[in-house]
Amino acid sequence: MREESSAGVWHNWSGSVSCEPHRYYEPTTEADLQKIVARHAGDQTIRVSGSGHSFSSIVPTDDVLLSLAAYTGVTDIDTERQRATVRAGTRLEELNEILATHGLALANMGDVDRQTIAGALATGTHGTGIDLGVLATQAVGIRLVTADGEIRTLTAADGETFRAAQVSLGALGVVSEITLELQRAYRLRERTWTAPLAEVLDRVDELRETHRHFEFFWFPHTETALVKTLDRTTDSPTRSVPFDADEYLENAAWGSLCRLSAIVPDASPQLARLAAATLSDGETVGPSHEVFPTQRSVRFNEIEYGVPADLGGDVVRSIRDHLAGDGQDILFPIEFRYTQGDEIPLSPAYGRDSAFIAVHTYHRKPHREYFEACETIFEEHDGRPHWGKMHTVDPERLRSCYPEWDTFQTVRRSLDPEGTFCNQRLRQLFDV
User: Which residues form the FAD-binding PCMH-type domain (predicted)?
Assistant: First the structure.
């Protein structure tokens, strides 16, 4: 186990969040996790970092930061039951490759595969698909090192405790391993095409019901949307490797536009129209784990909210109207996805099928005014924040929009009565 009295400054992927912990660890075994917790619980805050792909302030601490970078790998695969147990620090890209060699795959995932499995679950990370839940719904077992240094193995039989652990923000303890329910490996056909935003919004109900996965991106200051659908297929792959040269070049060109918009903000509307004009239709077939993710080399900041599924289109219209009247220099597209409802207390999709709308800005551009305006619109439509993205929602409102907010707090207090795993941000949210 690597241990340092000071590891310098930790920061997330976009550079929006940072901290300088007093003590830094990179454990390699479950016993290491127990030792770290036993050494510091009750005296110092312990937080866990994954890949740093979250934008919210739920990781930073001045006390103890535990990195999962060296705690990776699959410990068990049951091909008959279609289950796998994986260490918490394993990145999705690594997990997917291992599963593929055993003829297995995740039922769904988002369009980024650099996150750790534990971080993706803890923040309620999701993909798209009205009949598919957030990633945490695929977890059927969670091994957790609690504040007393003991290991709890949680399953659905543990009721509220297990449900709370599925999306926990890291506030219940240190997740050691996760057992996932999987599917036989499958292929997806990806289709992309451009269409007028108004037409897409009129068709969202149809598109979400007729495709396994449906999403679209809208470029502000334009009437253009890029639609993307994924459906199962048995057709032969049209690409056999995860590296896509066209995708790489597109990222490079997009990065140039973003840098220019940061230098000349007033040019953003024209640059958005230029970007939208270069979009083209496309179709590809490949293994699901190669089709789901897209390369994201351009750094950005982001907020994302889940709203009742039937209100998603109204939210996008409201954001469009706001931008039309406000004149903000926005370049990054808005992303729109669907997720099936679930019974996880802190899942933004709790109790309802949801439309998720993500709003981005280039990481070198101001975002506060734009994000706050969008948050107002989200809240007007009963929105719930994605825990891995930026948000300014206060505890009082969180309690009102999460029906089982108090259920989670009861579990948290029972497992961590002194708030060992709560940093300053979580103490504010949970009133610790």
Answer: 17-185
Domain of residue 99: give its range: 74-184
- pLDDT tens digit string along 113-136? 999 999 999 999 999 999 999 999
> CB neighbours (10 Å) of residue 409?
17
Of 184, 201, 233, the residue that ends a domain is 184
Domain check: are 131 and 213 in the same one? Answer: no
By mean pLDDT, which of 4-13, 72-81, 109-118 is the weakest? 4-13
pLDDT tens sequence across 21-76: 999 999 999 999 999 999 999 889 999 999 998 888 999 999 999 999 999 999 99
State whether 272 and 219 are in the same domain: yes
Number of domains making up the chain = 2
What torsion, rounded to 10 degrees, do the Cα atoms 261, 266, 270, 276 define? Answer: 50
- Helices 368-380 and 312-326, interaxial angle, to 10°? 140
Query: ∠ CA(89), CA(91), CA(96), 5° rounding?
Result: 130
Dihedrals phi, psi of 62, to nearest 5 degrees: -90, -5
Is this prediction's pTM over 0.85? yes
DSSP state of 144: E
